[in-house]
Each structure stands twice: as C-alpha cells, then as structure tokens.
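USER: I would love a firmer grasp of how sequence relates to backbone shape in proteins. This is the protein in question:
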Amino acid sequence: MDYEKVILDLIEFRNSRNWQKYHNLKSLAISLNIEASEVLEHFQWSEDPTESDNKKDSLEMELADVLTYTFYMCEKLGVNPMDLVEKKLNMNKNRKWKFSEPEKQDE
C-alpha cells in the first residue's frame, strides 16, 4: 500500500466518525506522544519484546498507531512523510556527528 492510498483511507476513516474537529496539530502531537510512550512501554521490563508472537504483534500495533498519528499530522501540514524522511536522511548523510564509533572489544 502506498502513502497516497494510506492517507486517503485514514481520512475516510476519520471523517466517517466525525473526528475532524479533534484532529488539530496540538491534539495529534499529544496523541503521537502517548502512542510513542506505549511503544516504549514494551521495553520497560524486557530487553526484547519480540520474544513471543503476542508481544511482537502488540508492539507492531503500537508502531502502527505512531505512524497513523504521524500521517495525520503530515496531512494537516500538507507534506508527504516519505519526502520528510528522505530530506532528513540526506541531511544526516552530510552531517558530522559529535560522537565516535565505540571501540571494538578483543574477543
């Protein structure tokens, strides 16, 4: 599924429930942060939340929530998230990082 199809489906879903009035940038940003916290919650007591299929599925659904709110914010801003990621990646490729690679440990 490409981004254009995803955003059209999300807008249709939102509009069918009359949620447009709740989808302002501030509310979407708050919701995005809450969902990102729910992603982090999967790591609270476990190094690897993918150790079982149920936990992995749950983590994937939280990531889907994060992406959904991100897509809604991008729709409000009139930008394509794929373009934003590409732009940021290109910036990072030319960036000089302030940290160095960790030293390799002798085995």
About this structure: The CA atoms of residues 99 and 105 lie 18 Å apart.
